[in-house]
Write a structure and sequence with these properties.
It is globular and about 80 Å long. By secondary structure, it is mainly alpha-helical. It contains 23 helices and four strands. Mean pLDDT is 82; it is low at 1-46 and 219-232. Strands 1-4 form a two-stranded antiparallel sheet. It has a two-stranded antiparallel ribbon with strand order 2-3. It has helices at residues 22-27, 30-36, 38-56, 60-73, 78-96, 106-112, 122-141, 144-151, 154-177, 199-213, 219-229, 236-253, 257-272, 276-279, 294-327, 335-349, 361-369, 376-391, 397-401, 405-420, 429-445, 448-465, 470-481; strands spanning 103-104, 178-181, 186-190, 357-358. Keywords: Membrane, Transmembrane, Transmembrane helix. The chain crosses the membrane at residues 78-100, 120-139, 151-173, 193-211, 251-271, 344-366, 378-397, 403-421, 433-462. This is Molybdate transporter 2. Residues 1-23 are annotated as: Disordered. It comes from Stephania japonica.
């Protein structure tokens, strides 16, 4: 704790350990006495556990809708997917030490239940996942992914993150405002105000999360601001006000708001349709090896893997590594390890019918936004998925089918905004220009790869204008004199 005065007084040093008088204790700053007390240690431990629990559900706003649609439309076994994604979560929680998310491969999922073509079969979806995983594994094993990570300009990466974050936020607003049909991927009639999945419920959940988490500032940020204020001259009234504000923020931040909102959604599933209890079957789903024909490989690779590969490289590896460096500078993960991780997950799970998965920057932002600060967040999520997969198997899809979509929209909204805010570190108009061009093309063209390509071109052209050509003139003069 910083010292307030340079003179040698009892306020500047701990009390004499030999003295137990009340006077000496009163000279010791109250904040320091609280920090060193067993009660404070216990409070910090409990707060951390609840924060990790809250962060564990931070990426379910994207996970549940995609998994639900694949289970209903394409008949992917939800029980198998829950078990394998649980194992992925537990493994990555131990290996990376940060809330590294496990999310569906979105382009494959979009193609799988798209109405513009025949729906993909389970073997074709698995073939697409295996093809994408093979490419990412090779890029990681040969360290080419690390080369791409170091060469790609930061404004272009920020543009991809901004576009993905805004895309999540736009989808979230549609979830809140309109009824959703995940089978067709379209919005329906406006959501009613009063119902078990009404607009009023979604707005109440949004206000509750906003009150408890604010703009998403870390508790350590508030502690730092409080400690810095101790260096400035202030009267007792100002000091008391700052302590009061800091205490209130700590209490509000300790509330696992996302977890409470998610548990409310689960309770409402049974309130909306009590008959789902009868449809639940206990026991895990049988795990079988998926038989993939040559035709399945061709269809899966051409229709689903080709659009997924660039998105996985950009959002599942490059953007995730950049975001982890921003959020956890002391625990930065490498592009090689993330790329190999995505590859190995699917090279194992897809053979058994588990949904193709990746690490998404949006999921990382969402789990961080709701309190996830370590691998414990995804470890707890993995344990929850494992229990559900082993106990309910594929029948759990009946519960997810009744989950309030407005609540999912609220969770997705905060995740998207957190991801988009990663782009706030652009320090010049030039960097912001490149980032916004990349984001705009990505959003309007519905393709992160297209936005990435345009961002690279714009970045090179901007740099070309400012390049120093004096070496060319010097070379020409030398040849002329010769």
């Amino acid at each position: 704790m910083p010292q307030l005065r340079t003179s040698h007084s009892t306020m500047d040093s701990p009390p004499d350990p030999e003295s137990s008088t009340t006077a000496s204790l009163l000279h010791w700053p109250r904040q320091q006495r609280w920090r060193n007390s067993p009660c404070a240690t216990s409070f910090r431990l409990k707060t951390s556990i609840w924060a990790e629990l809250g962060g564990s559900v931070g990426d379910l706003g994207t996970y549940i809708p995609i998994v639900l649609a694949l289970s209903i439309v394409n008949h992917i076994d939800l029980g198998t997917t829950l078990i394998f994604t649980a194992l992925y979560n537990i493994t990555t929680g131990f290996l990376f030490g940060i809330p590294m998310p496990v999310q569906p491969m979105k382009s494959i999922a979009a193609v799988a239940f798209s109405e513009s073509h025949t729906h993909l079969t389970v073997p074709q979806i698995m073939a697409a996942g295996l093809s994408t995983a093979s490419v990412l594994f090779l890029l990681g094993a040969t360290r080419l992914m690390s080369l791409f990570y170091n060469l790609i300009p930061l404004p272009v990466v920020r543009g991809v993150q901004l576009s993905q974050g805004l895309s999540f936020a736009f989808s979230a607003i549609k979830y809140v405002r309109y009824n959703q049909d995940f089978v067709t991927g379209k919005s329906g009639s406006p959501r009613p105000w009063l119902s078990l999945d009404g607009l009023l419920l979604a707005l109440a959940a949004l206000l509750f999360i906003l009150l408890s988490t604010g703009s998403g500032d870390d508790n350590h940020h508030h502690d730092h601001q409080f400690n810095q204020s101790q260096l400035l001259p202030q009267d007792d009234h100002q000091s008391s006000r700052r302590r009061t504000i800091r205490t209130r923020l700590r209490i509000l931040s300790a509330i696992p708001s996302a977890l409470l909102v998610f548990l409310l959604g689960i309770a409402l599933c049974f309130a909306k349709d009590p008959s789902i209890v009868k449809d639940l079957k206990f026991g895990p789903a049988p795990i079988r090896v998926v038989k993939i024909t040559w035709e399945d490989w061709k269809v899966g690779f051409v229709r689903a893997a080709i659009p997924q590969i660039p998105l996985s490289v950009l959002n599942s590896v490059i953007a995730v590594c950049k975001l982890s460096a921003d959020l956890f500078p002391d625990r930065e993960v490498s592009a090689t390890s993330v790329s190999v991780s995505v590859g190995l997950m699917n090279l194992v799970g897809c053979w058994f019918g588990a949904m193709p998965c990746c690490h998404g920057a949006g999921g990382l932002a969402g789990q961080y936004r709701f309190g996830g600060r370590s691998g414990a967040s995804v470890l707890l999520l993995g344990i929850g998925k494992l229990v559900l997969g082993l106990v309910f198997g594929n029948s759990f899809v009946r519960i997810l089918g009744e989950f309030p979509i407005g609540i999912l929209g609220v969770l997705l909204l905060f995740s998207g905004i957190e991801l988009a805010m990663a782009s706030r570190d652009m320090n010049s108009k030039e960097e912001s220009f490149v980032m916004l061009i990349c984001a705009a093309v990505s959003l309007t063209g519905s393709s992160a790869a297209l936005g990435f390509g345009c961002g690279i071109v714009v970045f090179l052209l901007v740099k070309l204008r400012k390049m120093d050509y004096s070496f060319l003139k010097f070379r020409g003069d030398t040849e002329t004199s010769a």
